[in-house]
Amino acid sequence: MGESKTIKFSDESLALVKRIISRYPEGKQKSALLPVLHLAQSEFDGWLSSEVMDYVASLLNIKPIEVYEVATFYTMYNLEPVGKCLIEVCQTGPCWLRGADDIVEHLEKKLDIKVGETTADGMFTLKVVECLGSCGTAPMLQCGADYHENLTTEKVDDLVEKLRASGKRSSYLKSITNNE
Amino acid sequence: MPKKVLLEHENVPGINRFDVYRKHGGYASVEKALKTMTPDQLTEEVKESGLRGRGGAGFPTGLKWSFLDRKSDKPRYLVCNADESEPGTFKDRYLMEKIPHLLIEGMIASSYALGAKTSYIYVRGEYMYIVKILEKAIDEAYAAGFLGKNILGTDFSHDLYVQPGAGAYICGEETALLESLEGKRGNPRLKPPFPAIAGLYACPTVVNNVESIASVVSIINMTADKYNDMGIGKSTGTKLISASGHINKPGVYEIELGLPVEEFIYSDEYCGGIWKGRKLKAVVAGGSSVPILPANLILKNAKGEPRLMTYESLADGGFATGTMLGSGGFIVMDETACIVRNLWTFERFYHHESCGQCSPCREGTGWMEKVLHRLEHGHGRMEDIDLLVDVAKKIEGNTICPLGDAAAWPVASAIRHFREEFEYHVKYPEKVKNPKHFEIEPLVSAAAVAV
Prior knowledge:
The complex is a heterodimer.
Chain A (H helix, E strand, L loop, with lengths): L10 H11 L11 H11 L6 H11 L3 H8 L13 E6 L2 H5 L2 H12 L12 E6 L11 E3 L2 E3 L4 H14 L14
Parallel strand pairs in A: 1-2
Antiparallel strand pairs in A: 1-3, 3-4
Helix pairs in contact in A: 2-3, 3-4
Chain B lengths: L17 H6 L4 H9 L2 H11 L11 H6 L10 E6 L8 H8 L1 H15 L3 E6 L4 H16 L15 E6 L9 H8 L23 E5 H13 L1 H6 L1 E2 L2 E2 L1 E8 L5 E6 L4 H6 L13 E5 L7 E3 H5 L11 H5 L2 H4 L7 E6 L4 H15 L5 H18 L6 H13 L7 H25 L1 H4 L4 H4 L11
Parallel strand pairs in B: 1-2, 1-4, 2-3, 7-11
Antiparallel strand pairs in B: 5-6, 7-8, 9-10, 9-11
């Protein structure tokens, strides 16, 4: 528990946590848990260590177990370290019909890893996920906040290079490629 | 020209901004409701419109509103279900991305009808970029005086917030959504009590789908009578259909309910026909959960009458020969699609998404996934087919929430209509080991003719 002292949100994030809590009635600050976990994952290297979860618990004045049981339920929370860019390819029916398997196979070759693995340089983790609501623009993948749709193997190659060149860590809260 | 009410302005440049949206008649429904209607009148209006829940269940929206406990002295809440996760469904995402103010406007008007001082839009976590779009639109609505204290000088005040989920299909079930909004695991609640009595924070709550709430705007603007004129019978108004799969023009289309299915699939106005000049083999008409139908039965019902895009027509024939409109997730498969492999992806999905509370669903979805994996990869046995039917039967109706049924129906219907294809997988294990087996050598069974 002593380690949790080294984990602390930036002032900006702390202000945001306060604003999020104010959306709910007095005493219902636990409602802030999902958005605050997203914020924590984004700020602390793309995953939730038990120290980070304990820190979130202390911020929201709830028990650590209440954070663990939520973090382990929802698929977007990573409970282990991941590569800088987490690439998530949708594989459910409608995407499969439009060639999602070929995209996964191509990524495995291109990155020289299997689904579930991270490249040796720690740059990419490849995951397959279930329906992301992009069936009309299938096949698709998600990397952080960005949806990449109507994929072809050429588009995948371009994307991988772009992500490598940017060197940024992917986050569901921030776009890397679709800057407004 | 097809009638559009929700997506009328979808192609207007800048329609996602308040000023442009307002110039095109935006927020008129809030003015009309707050200044000329009582909350009860508005609830009556929605009842009379015949609007049915657009998330999938099709329950009358006005009736749902009328169940809200208005005698309780607790605060009331409106929660918008934007957890769109049913495979094949992406219409709410399209609507929120293109015309976010339509949802905000609907939330304000609906909250007025329900007497809700606070409302939340619960958006699936993967749509995080949509959260930003909505928050920007909400800020604009506050700045223009359509949210906050004493809206338009009336004594109605309202606050609206967006809440992200974090990846869980089950949170589309309304009580799981409420649990999640309270910062808990998305485990569906036992009912009763229904949310109308004890919902968010045990207060009276209405949970409505994005498209249902957006439709309230049309109902107020055009009046229930005129809204009622659109559609056929008990399927009134328009519906957003998410079209995907083996078609020339996948995308979101607003249709007037009653459109013939055949026209929807083949007209250039909509799906534009089957891609690559191939034949139609099967359709999942309302999201992954609804029964799959072979080409002949989706175009015409068992009596040979043309099938229409309505709640009733798609359900004609019950589960023996019919299906459901569901969420409007319209997944089309051509003659090269493997029904078994598609079904395996669906059951893998349900197994992944089962919350684990009820053993029939938690265990049953896992077994169905495993047996389908075995069949699809050439290790199946003939008795596996009836084993699947048996497991599906034992899940259906035996769980707290409908996820169990949603996992069971696709299995039962695929075997009902495409048994020959399952048998083929057992008979020719070497052939099906290639994942693209039917692309190499299409199989269309005699019972299910491709059109």
